[in-house]
User: Fold this.
Amino acid sequence: MRNRTAYVAGGAIGALVVLAGLVFTFLVPVPWVVALAAQFDTSLFSAALRLSVPIAFAALGGIFAEKSGVINIGLEGLLIASAFTSIAVAWGLAGSVGPTTAAWAGFIAAILASTLLAGLFAVVTIRYEADQIIAGLAVWLVALGLAPFASQIVWNSVNSPAVPTLNNWVVPGLVEVPVLGPAVFDSNPTVYLMLLAVPASWFVLNRTAFGRWVRASGENPKALDTAGVNVSRIRYASVLLSGVFSGVGGAGLALGQVGQFIGSGQTMVSGRGWIGITAYLMGNYNPIGAFLSSFLFAGLNALQFRVQQISELNISPSLVQMVPFVAVIVVLALVGKTRLPDAAGDHYESGDD
Amino acid sequence: MPSWSESAASKIVTASAKERIYISVAAFVASVLVGSVLVYLSGLVVDCAGGRFLGSCYNPFLVYYYLFVDPFVGGFNVALVMKETVLLIFTGLSVAVAFRAGLFNIGSQGQLVLGGLASALAVIFAAPFAPTGPVGTLVLVPLALVVGAVFGGLYAAIPGALKAYAEANEVITTIMLNFVATNLAFFLISTYYQDPESGSVQTVAIPEAARLTPVLPFFEGAQFSVVALVLGLALVGGTYYVLANTAFGYDLRTSGVQATAADYAGVDAKRLVVSSMTLSGALAGLGGAVYVLMVMSRYRTGIPALGFDGITVSILAGNNPLGVLPAALLFGVMKAGSLSIDFSLGVPKQLVGVLRGLVILFVAMPEFFRMLARYTSFGPDADRPVATDGGEDDA
Assistant:
């Protein structure tokens, strides 16, 4: 079953690539293809890595929550909350401490804010047995309302001024490696964090006692309870972990890429949390698969930024911006139903409560 | 065909309806309380010259006066309330219908956007062939409404079909389709239908004859039409009737409550998913058409988040079409009031967005209020939480 889904997911990605290839071959004149092919270079790779950060972290968080039996569709809201907090704190401290300290303080504050919101979601769903989908939606809508409201209070505008950002870290020596060096080893700290967090999450989920408890809590909470492990505690820990991860993702977006908070429309997060959910569904709850899916979406996004700048390709930016979202729908349609953990979405009440 | 009032389960349904109302009211009050704390704390941060309330620039009592009472002072304000209410009825009904079928349509926004755009374009293209004056109105307005409903419905049929035949989760697909709709509308207008005289991305204005105007002198000057209100009320009644008294409505509700049971009873589940989503999208599309005819008189990008507000309205209404009316009115008042808190007190109008989220959060946790009720020994007895199962788990 698991293998089948993985094959379907692989097939879906393959089909998508072939489909894109066909479109380009038959509909796109040769000079366009040449111009487009020229875009695939190290800096596109590096941009794709950077753009993966919020999506991949949201996806990792989503995996832990859902594996433990709590479907957290509020990831988008967690990203919004942390993006706003990181900018507000970095802005507030920029005058009194150095820019680097201010940015890192913003980073830490963002993780706290996102974890706090995730904690609220955990209490509402675990303690007060709220429907997880509706409560997750509420987390999104609360953040979607609160962040622009707070921006108005702080900056008198839904958008913030520019703030100090997290500067790239260059790894001496490794950056000299041809092709891979400049693409990976001259990156934002949050990119390195992502490259660490993905294998670490895989290891924790599959090779540690905690990971076993998380999986049991989502598949068979009764058994876990019988074994003497507190199901609620595991679920709280997992949901809080999704808050920590989303906090890093939101701060990575705000402090690692944009350098300001944009609160108009659907805010600067603009669907990345939702794409994160699709990324882990597509990766079948495997952190590595989820990261690869995130990287695919981020790559499409990085490509669309560039396609807009190719003069031979006179394509409307809004049309190109649709591509990642359409891709998500196509992938979801092809992958179909991924197998949810058995107890995901269910409340669990231990007998001695 | 068992109707709600005649069914054997009517007692349970009434009891649970009572509890739903209780929970909705409690959730709303709780949101308002949390909102006032938020407003008070915000007032400590901002700078202000004038009087302070316990050290805060914002007086929560005054904020709620402007939010809930001021909208009823004067004909213009009332018209503003009615305008927002009417718009929320469509998306509220849209979400409610899907919800009843056990489907979560978060894509009302996208369906409204494309329905509105299609109806604006239809009117603009048909106008040269249509007569002017009242006769033109009789041709163009129904045309716009039908086109809006058709396009909204078709756009919702996509996630419906994906759910039915590819098992793609409709929560995710409808959200993605919102983003697609916004970008698609922007692309279509900026590339093909741009008003050459305008700097913003919009179509040319629709002809006078196709506009929905106030009709009653009391509402003069506001973008509110009594005709749109009548249409909204008719849809509330119509949707209630369809859900309660038709075979389709019965199948829809049964699928929402117990999909397997519906399957045994011979309901074609896949077709039902597509048709429920289509109906839901058609209602959102109608909302888009009304937005164009009544508010904008053209299609312009940057439509307010009526679809998301519709989710709140429907959840507050317990997903009951009749409940949509008071819930839409409540949010209509708050939307109008958000302008007056901004204008009169300088409190950001985004406050209503915060309240929207809080309302959903509190409605999601009836268990919280039950514990509160048990603790204070007040309020009716418990039943299960509001859930994504059609909101009729107890029927």
User: Anything to note?
Assistant: Chain A touches chain B through 49 residues (CB under 8 Å). The first strand of chain A starts at residue 169 and ends at 170. Chain A has a mean pLDDT of 87.
